[in-house]
Amino acid sequence: MAIQFFICLNKQGILRLVRWFQPFSGAAPNNQATIAQIYKLISTRDHKHQSNFVEFSDSTKLVYKRYAGLYFLMGVDLHDEELIYLSHIHLFVEVLDAFFGNVCELDIIFNFYKAYMILDELIIGGEIQETSKDVLLERVNYLDRLD
Amino acid sequence: MVANVGHNTMKGLQLFIADLRSLQQTEEQERRIQSEIVNIQKQFGSVNTLNGYQRKKYVAKLAYIYITTNTTKLGDIMFGLDQCCQLLASTIYSEKFIGYMTLELLYHHQSVASHIQDQVISQLKSDLASTDDNFVSLALNFIGVTGKCNEILTEELVHEVFQVLRSPTSAQILKKKSSLAFLALVKNDPSIFTHDSRRKQLWIQRIVSLLDDTANYRLMASVLPLVEYIAREIDYTSCVKLVPQLSQILYNCVVVGTTGSDTSTEENKFASVPNPWLVTKLVSLLNVLISSSTNAELNITSSNIDQNTLGKLRLCVTRVIEIGTKGAADVLTRTVQNTVLFSLINFASKLDPSAEAIASSVGALCSLLASNDTNTRYLTLDSLVRLCSMSGRPAQNAVRANHMNQLFHLLRNERDSSIVRKLVDLLYTLTDAENVQLIVDELLQYMTNAKHTDHHIRSDLAVKVAILTEKFANDSNWYVIVSLKLLSLTNTSFNDDDIWQRLCQIVVNNESLHQLTCDHLLGYLRENHTSEAIVKTAAFLLGEYVNLVIDKCSVGDLFNLFTGKYFTVSNICRAMILATMMKLYKSDRQIGSAVIKFFQLELNSLDVELQTRSFEYLKIIQFEKMHGAQLTNILFSPMAPFNSKKNPLLGRLGNLPFGSTDTVSSFSSAGSNSTVPTPPPTRNSRKRSQSYYSQKALSAHWQEGFHRMLKHRQGVLYSSSLIKILYRVSPSQSQPELSEVTLTYINKIDLPFGSFLTELISWRTDENPAYIVHTIEVPKVDIAPGERTTHKFEVLTRHAFPVDQSPILSVGFKCGRGIHSVCLKVGMGITSTILPMKPGGQPNVSLPQFIQRWRTISDAFGKEGECCATVEIQKNDVYAHVRHTVEKLGLEIVEQAMVENTLFAAGIIHTKSDGNFGCLMKLRCQSNDVNITCKTTSGGELSKFVVDCIEKCLT
């Protein structure tokens, strides 16, 4: 039970954030091809009438959600409970939103290193380490002010 | 000029990003990136040393290039690695951060890791030892992210990370991070844990004790995944004893936290429902620790959890169903409610639920099926599939009784194919002989009507319908009709031979089906559009049984029908038709010229197979015509019955649960292209071996209490400077082979005990164990100074066992800084099942009876089941001591004056499985020696086991 990877893509399939928590054992020969496959799979799904979960390979299912023009998605084990990962994603987006103040894609582009900073406070080694939005915000604001 | 700009603004980086974004053409962007790379390369190579800010900025640009090019430019930015390492060594947080952040992105590439490994590891070591918590955090984050990609990191850093985890002075945030970083490292190489058993125990004790602070849910949430990994992969047995503690936490979170106005558990909650993160982690761990009762040979199941704990867990399930079906105002709350609901319902089947409890779970889930939210419907079905496969018949019946129409309704209207797939799985699981026609009709209906179903679902559906019709058909005609209907619905993209081949096998083997099948096939062939699978079936079966349809359709007409289909089907199917034409020719030579013409035409086919066949068949016909031999009759003799009993389609199922009568294992999982889900995983079967029992090192002076307990019904089992353990054994009057044991633990010192955990270890728990230990009540986790807590369990003796295989009690607790453990044998032997005579009661055995029985046993078994032993006793009055001991054990003294200094004693040994045995004994006391002769009505080793117990009690 752990997150295998975390990816943020925009609607055109351009990578915005990527984090591999374990060596990826997918069908694709490398990570770039995997990301392209994931984009192909996710972008063809009907977002009104289809669930936020889709099986991706023999070992991985994707839990994803689109917020405005950005897809946030996680690869998790097939036996994992999907909903909690959806909550992970939501929490991440909420913290981004509060930190940047009404976050948009541009914030994540220009401040990608801060987005990573937030991600590292939220998830470590593929496991969630903090679930309180307030605690997370306080922490990242503190880190952001450090010289 | 830029000296005091924090890392929140790196102007050069912002400009570069903005620049890139302003360029529309990919080639322009590419050029811009290249020129930037060249620039950075020049900066890094220049003689002027860069300051920290510049270095940070350039490295950040490289990181951006890596991301924005979808990781394709790795080779072009490798030159910056050394500068990254320099940033790591910086004492300014923002510089160190950019260094670590960039390497977190790149380190999983082997080329990167091997290039800078030594520098990174030495920097990590120094940062882990730093007094600045922020630096330690960065190092732990890095290890958490990259730990699983690189084994050398485990070897080099695991001790340092553990040091942060165990240190009582570490800040909470560091403990959380180090727990997960440690997990990442251990996952890499679990042997780091196991190759030193002392270290393993020490580490596990430390880690488990982190769960003690039951008020600190923050830390707990980060430690639980680590404990789960240990339970799953490293040492299941040392985690089992956590079940009561974990259940209590879950109970606090789910039940206590949501009732009343308990504000102290605010942290427990999330959007006014139990904290889903904590609940899912707790349940996930409990799922690993508790096996389902169908795997009873493994470890613990609902039957050996104490009732109190089981009760709490069941209450959690009930409560969550209440919460979950209440409905929620906003999406977030609903998501959280459902998370908790699904998590617990999926776990509930392990708690040996009653039929009503299962029905209530089913009811709660089915009420969610009507939800507008796609995710909810998807997960509900997933959960129902699991429930029906884990809880079997009760769950299936509950769905069949009340919810079938709801499921059919959903099937007709659902638009999400992944939901349909789950639904099909569920319907498949629910099918039995009674509802098979209904369900198969609905599924065929769906295949007929659904317009936008994807190929996978259709093929999955077809396989399932085929299996269900074969398995549950109680009318073979119905089987044929439905199978043909199914084949007629498959489309060209459906390239699957298993189904029609299976049908052909069955039809060939059952003569009664020949006529009906051929009639229907003829009907399908006459339609304009015939699916290829039907054509294949017809080509085979009508070729075989031409004579059965000859009154409805002449051979010539049949030939024309097949020629008509010939050009609409694939080459493989055409090849089959060519063979069928030969069979038709065999039954009616008049069509010879048409057949020859057709074969001649196909000699020009582009397909080698078709060409070859036509050529060969032509030659056969020519040969026959020239020599008049009946070659076709020999070559195309009627099909012999098939002997394949197993449906090949079953292999395609993976291990989807199939009804409740079949075991999952009867399906091979060979066909890996199956798209059906597997049932939820149960823990890898890892039996608790006897070596676990044997390897337990017992505490010093354990024998004292052990002997006492064998002899006396209550007393002190153990006492040290810290702790005292009292015991009381109460055998059940109606069932003497069952004894209830109560242990009382007393804290003798001024410090509280924490993580007080107990474990009872049986010699064997599988393969017909001699006794079964069942916990009734577990002691408290914390014991204040001077306080006591009780621990209750039952021991059921099933058959005789040697006294040195008595259960072991292992107690571990934390006190001050230290961790202590006590390991003792519980004094329960075969003599514990002897029911003592009531004081003042009438003797059961008279002297003549004793003598007569003694003789009877001797006649029956001879010396076989007899046991003799001599025990030396250092006491003044040996006779009195022996007499007292024998009486204490519950044996009855048979008064006699025939033999001096000798005691005659009798008693009944009770066992659950083997029944009761009489036991007779003569004990002769001579100065300091006692000669014991024991006979029992069992010929085996029983008397030896009894004598062993008595010896232990006498000395």
From TrEMBL, chain A:
Entries under Pfam families matching the protein: Clat_adaptor_s
Keywords: Membrane, Protein transport, Transport
Gene Ontology annotations of biological process type: intracellular protein transport; vesicle-mediated transport
Residue ranges occupied by any AP complex mu/sigma subunit domain in the UniProt entry: 3-146
Places the protein is found: Endomembrane system
Keyword Membrane: yes
GO cellular component: endomembrane system; membrane coat
SUPFAM superfamilies: SNARE-like
Xref: Gene3D superfamilies: 3.30.450.60
UniProt main location, coarse: membrane
Similarity comment: family membership: Belongs to the adaptor complexes small subunit family.
Full protein name: AP complex subunit sigma
UniProt source species: Lachancea fermentati (Zygosaccharomyces fermentati)
UniProtKB/TrEMBL annotation, chain B:
Originating species: Lachancea fermentati
Protein name: AP-2 complex subunit alpha
Gene Ontology terms: biological process: clathrin-dependent endocytosis; intracellular protein transport
Bilayer topology term: Peripheral membrane protein
InterPro entries assigned: Adaptor_Complx_Large_Subunit (IPR050840), AP2_complex_asu (IPR017104), ARM-like (IPR011989), ARM-type_fold (IPR016024), Clathrin/coatomer_adapt-like_N (IPR002553), Clathrin_a-adaptin_app_sub_C (IPR003164), Clathrin_app_Ig-like_sf (IPR013041), Coatomer/calthrin_app_sub_C (IPR009028)
UniProt xrefs under Gene3D superfamilies: 2.60.40.1230, Leucine-rich Repeat Variant, TATA-Binding Protein
Clathrin/coatomer adaptor adaptin-like N-terminal domain segment(s): 30-622
Keywords: Coated pit, Endocytosis, Membrane, Protein transport, Transport
GO cellular component, one term: AP-2 adaptor complex
